[in-house]
Write a structure and sequence with these properties.
Strand content: 15-25%
Radius of gyration: 25 Å
CATH superfamily of the largest domain: Aldolase class I
Bound molecules: 3-methyl-2-oxobutanoic acid, zinc ion
CATH topology of the largest domain: TIM Barrel
Number of strands: 16
Number of helices: 19
Strand order of the largest sheet: 2-3-4-5-6-7-8-9
Helix content: 40-55%
CATH architecture of the largest domain: Alpha-Beta Barrel
Length: 510
């Protein structure tokens, strides 16, 4: 028997759209969620958790919409172990090709006593009854023992055995508060496997939080000890310090197949594009030194390293940038590059756009190439990102003029095209960007609060493109916008306008 025959298959359950979206500042609207779901399908994850259907009408609608577009992965909705929650989750996922109900109840002494105010016996009975209830609706039911890593062993074994007997096809062991450490968490999985008689009838899953920075390590220890499914989010976004980062756990299994003897079905070459998409729609930037997808993850700064990598990349690289879909910058594009070279570069970077969008983007690329000596992959990816989000442009920037110095109050004159009309407004504020945002809000008559604003240089050099991201709030709705330009003020204005375009589009559609 060859090595690959013995490889264990690990199922990847992505919860970017549910646990990831729960993290502060990572709220996504329906369009964003569908875009992320499309990337997750291409990435070939096994299960996509679309949301927590009963949490709000918006959540319900997005789980239902995700269920409607995803074809290969299973689509799950989270629900408490209560009939009305389960009914709602089922309504949201029933249109999926592979629907899953994911129900949970807490099993730790502190959660049962203080949060649920229930005796363990009642928790056991409810868990079993609700799995039976869910199984009457859906053939694929996952059950999670919330706060399992702080639960008592004998109680865990009993609940796991009971819910499997009731029909749960997957039983999930969450480290809800990020308390576990790898050796102990791995042992917990090994003990469950050894002490639950019917464990072979279900998949055993793990779901780790990163409060001590151990989510990936705990998940890997659990896989080594026999877990079959890993729950994770793109870029590790999630409650508090986040969840297990999908790209890290997948690449650890891929790179160290020799050690784990396990593999996923993920197409690792789609990791980079998916990470960028999640970062763009949430406005949550990936730190430069983040493993796998950080800007510096494949950059070699020290001369001795550069020398080694040039001689043979394996001297300092344990995986290639190509393996995550980040091509080496083989070909620098500039103003003399043709559309064909540009289009093939786009495809290598993981952007599959129709010919109209490619043509539009090529125009933007040419404008950029006129302003910059050379255009890098990061520049192209930054331009292409906008094409993917496909925001309906109800209002457009026509031109702006800013007067700013350290001696006078900055003033911005903005001219927009809204419903075919040019409208101009002048506003003054403590900074040129603030003055521009103020003028735009006055033209559109919107009162939103700016919750986050970030400016980042996409590449080095004084002619670098700048990426601006904004998050604005209108009541309980949150909107993200992103703008790219070699001019920081223009990038900021474009980002603000993109967020307001989503808002305007939503209010027009009602
Ligand atoms: O962290 C957690 O326990 C969860 C469960 C509800 C799966 O997100
Ligand atoms: Zn969680």
């Amino acid at each position: 028997m060859s090595d690959s025959d013995k490889m264990r298959r690990i199922y990847v359950f992505d919860t970017t759209l549910r646990d990831g979206e729960q993290s502060p500042g990572c709220t996504m609207n329906l369009r964003d969620k569908l875009l992320v779901a499309e990337h997750l399908e291409e990435l070939r994850v096994d299960i996509i958790e679309g949301g927590f259907a009963i949490a709000s009408t918006g959540d319900f609608e997005s789980v239902r919409a995700v269920a409607g577009v995803v074809k290969n992965a299973a689509v799950a909705s989270l629900c408490r172990a209560l009939p009305k929650d389960i009914d709602c989750a089922w309504e949201a996922v029933r249109g999926a090709v592979h629907p899953r109900i994911h129900t949970f109840i807490a099993t730790s002494p502190i959660h049962m006593a203080c949060k649920l105010k229930m005796e363990p016996e009642k928790v056991y009975e409810q868990a079993v009854a609700m799995v039976q209830y869910a199984r009457n609706l859906c053939g694929d039911v996952e059950f999670s023992l919330e706060d399992c890593s702080r639960s008592e062993r004998d109680f865990i074994y009993r609940v796991v055995e009971g819910v499997i007997a009731a029909g749960a096809g997957t039983v999930n062991i969450p480290d809800t508060v990020g308390y576990a450490v790898p050796e102990q968490f791995g042992q917990l999985i090994a003990d469950i496997k050894a002490n639950v008689p019917n464990i072979g009838s279900a998949r055993l899953a793990v779901h780790c939080h990163n409060d001590l920075g151990l989510a990936v390590a705990n998940s890997l220890a659990a896989i080594k000890a026999g877990a079959d499914q890993v729950e994770c989010t793109v870029n590790g976004i999630g409650e508090r310090a986040g969840n297990t980062a999908l790209e890290e756990v997948v690449m650890a299994l891929h790179t160290r197949r020799d050690f784990f003897n396990a593999e996923t079905n993920v197409d690792t070459t789609k990791i980079y594009a998916t990470s960028r998409c999640v970062s763009a729609v949430t406005g949550s930037r990936v730190q430069a030194n983040k493993a796998i997808v950080g800007e510096n993850a494949f950059a070699h700064e020290a001369g001795i390293h550069q020398h080694g990598v040039l001689a043979n990349p394996l001297t300092y690289e344990i995986m290639t940038p190509e393996s995550i879909g980040l091509p080496r910058n083989k070909m620098i594009l500039g103003k003399h590059s043709g559309k064909h070279a540009f289009e093939s570069r786009l495809q290598e970077l993981g952007f599959h756009l129709d010919s109209q969008r490619v043509a539009e983007l090529f125009g933007k690329f040419k404008d950029l190439a006129d302003r910059k000596k050379s255009v890098s992959d990061a520049d192209i990816a930054a331009l292409a990102q906008d094409m993917q989000t496909m925001v309906v442009e109800r209002v457009k920037l026509d031109r702006y003029n800013v007067t700013a110095s350290n001696a006078i109050t900055p003033v911005s004159t903005i001219r927009l095209i809204h419903d075919g009309k040019q409208i101009e407004q002048v506003a003054a504020s403590d900074g040129p960007i603030n003055a521009s945002f103020k003028a735009i809000s006055q033209i559109l008559g919107v009162k939103v609060s700016l919750e986050a604003f970030q400016l980042t240089a996409i590449t080095g050099g004084v002619d670098a493109q700048c990426e601006a991201t904004v998050r604005v709030r209108d009541g309980d709705r949150v909107y993200h916008g992103r703008g790219v330009s070699t001019d920081v003020i223009e990038a900021s204005i474009l980002a603000y306008l993109q967020a307001l375009n989503v808002l305007l589009d939503e209010s027009v559609r009602g």
